[in-house]
From TrEMBL:
Name by which UniProt lists this protein: Sigma-70 family RNA polymerase sigma factor
Family indicated by similarity: Belongs to the sigma-70 factor family. ECF subfamily.
GO biological process: DNA-templated transcription initiation
PANTHER family hit by this protein: ECF RNA POLYMERASE SIGMA FACTOR SIGD (PTHR43133:SF58), RNA POLYMERASE ECF-TYPE SIGMA FACTO (PTHR43133)
NCBIfam families: PRK12512.1, sigma70-ECF
Pfam families (alphabetical): Sigma70_r2, Sigma70_r4_2
Molecular-function annotations in GO: DNA binding; sigma factor activity
Domain of life, source organism: Bacteria
Domain RNA polymerase sigma factor 70 region 4 type: 126-177
Amino acid sequence: MTADDRERQWADWMVAGLGGDEAAYRRLLTALAPALRGKVRRALARWGVPDADAEDIVQDALLAIHLKRHTWRREDAIGPWIEAIARYKLVDALRRRGRRGEVPIDGLGDFLPGDDDPAENLGRRDAERLVDRLGGTQGRIVRAVAVEGTSIRDTAQSLGMNEGAVRVALHRGLKTLSKLYRVEP
């Protein structure tokens, strides 16, 4: 399939999705993810930045595409519109990152406190106390994913939600936790 054929397929799925065809819209987002992932990873490599944040940038781009889908004009090519959104999300991520240096962590485990360290347990209790303040679905999601290490997929299935909604709730919950921590260290 050529790049033009692929973009025509994306445009067809977007048109169908805008018309209410959820399956076509899901196919569009599923097809966009790997394409965006590759572009983001290549761009991060060009900037000399490790691609650890690539998936977050891809998810931000997919969310922005979803939220701004009504701005795409059918008479315009969809590829440049998608690339512009992804580029803005990449630039945003690079700006947030700033000039932060990367430090290798190999061998750092020898210096970190173990599970039996009282300070570690105190920090864990404080974190759990803050998570308890979230309550509701957001609290369950943060506890499952961030504290217990459950995957997004498993958390979504256990709560009867889709993965995107779980990611959004997790992001908002972590943001709320950050605010709570600043108010009550």
